[in-house]
């Protein structure tokens, strides 16, 4: 049976070449023979976790591209042209990365649907109480993962959620079963987000908070809560964002990894988190090993493995970003370091070393620039709650300031507190999100959801800096630019019988 399950996964992958939405295998195995035993169900869940390692997702495109597309980095003169379309704002519906992200997310959804379609009969055939408990947990994990995949599609391929217009804006195609093969159009943005919320609520019911632990590579109730808080923020549901982030902040299972306290004589707890992918603030990580891992997040920012002598970064931090950190902000030395480059023009610039690589991977297998992605950290929850407190009907700037300063106290030596007000809160929160979440995939979506609220909708302007590529270094993009919403892959729109509607960016 496990061999049959593997055949199914191959069939699902192959179908993506035609349409990422039609995931029902045509020549794999009869449906009545699919996923019958506990071992089959366990193997199916293992396969879903494996899909999360894809370099199209958190260990690559989904993390890098939304930030690279904005004002956070500059392409280096002589770069390899990796992700050049995104840097130059020439993304098209045929861009391979656009297709890969879309396909990978729908592949995860399809496998989640497959599990949820057939797990009831596995439960009915199982008598062992321990296995029934495990099946309950697996089902909760799958609901949370499906919610995660849909939430990422909504972030990338849809407009920002506005409660007053959500019912008339396009969301995503909601495929929740493998048993219905009929073509579907995109649901409304409102209905799409409601599906995410529905899946999260089911996950939260099924997952036991006793299993919550920091640095978990398995989906936990805490991960579902973290996603719920983020989704609520994106929906402008301020009270829910406050509620879910508060539960995590007050949890005894998580604490900010201090950048001002030392784990060893020369390494802070914050450093250790990035160097070894373990930390008390990691709510959920993608579990890599030296024999099973995805993309190399640090490759485009370091390129040490070109010749193992010099560094050949494709992209370097923007000067304005470097200037955001005070001399006492310990995040700077964790994230940036000037290293010798091999370019003929002699580039000397602080490089992004945040993704230098898991030290165990380097020491044991010479695998550079590969880290375990950390999609959810407690730091983001402080930022979520602070913003929601400022934007609720009756703002609480005092409580929001306390959250920001709690985060900053764990990162900055000797103070550095700030005071949020009605006049400055969005600029201050935006700056802190850059300092904390730099190149973790948030900037593009922040521009989109803030719109006119941030910089009066002026978006961003790049100004050339030392050794930057001329093309793209002088670029102004308004916050309402259609390309803040990625185009739907052309093969989805043109597939036979497709009902999928394009975006304005198509």
Task: Provide an overview of this structure.
The protein has a domain of 223 residues: Serine Threonine Protein Phosphatase 5, Tetratricopeptide repeat (Alpha Horseshoe), CATH 1.25.40. Helices cover 44% and strands 6% of the residues. It is built from 19 helices and ten strands. The chain has a two-stranded antiparallel sheet. Helix 2 packs parallel to helix 6 and helix 6 packs antiparallel against helix 7. It is globular. The N terminus is likely disordered.
Question: TL;DR?
Answer:
The chain is built from 19 helices and ten strands. The chain is mainly α and 506 residues long. It has a two-stranded antiparallel ribbon with strand order 1-5.
Q: Topology, please?
A:
Layout: H1 2-15, H2 38-51, H3 61-68, E1 73-75, H4 84-87, H5 96-125, H6 129-157, H7 189-206, H8 221-234, H9 238-249, E2 262-264, E3 267-268, H10 269-276, E4 282-284, E5 315-317, H11 319-322, H12 331-335, E6 336-338, E7 350-352, H13 359-365, E8 376-377, H14 378-391, H15 397-409, H16 425-437, H17 443-450, E9 460-462, H18 470-473, E10 475-477, H19 490-494
Antiparallel strand pairs: 1-5, 2-3, 4-8, 6-7, 9-10
Helix pairs in contact: 2-5, 2-6, 5-6, 6-7, 6-8, 7-8, 8-9, 8-14, 9-14, 14-15, 14-16
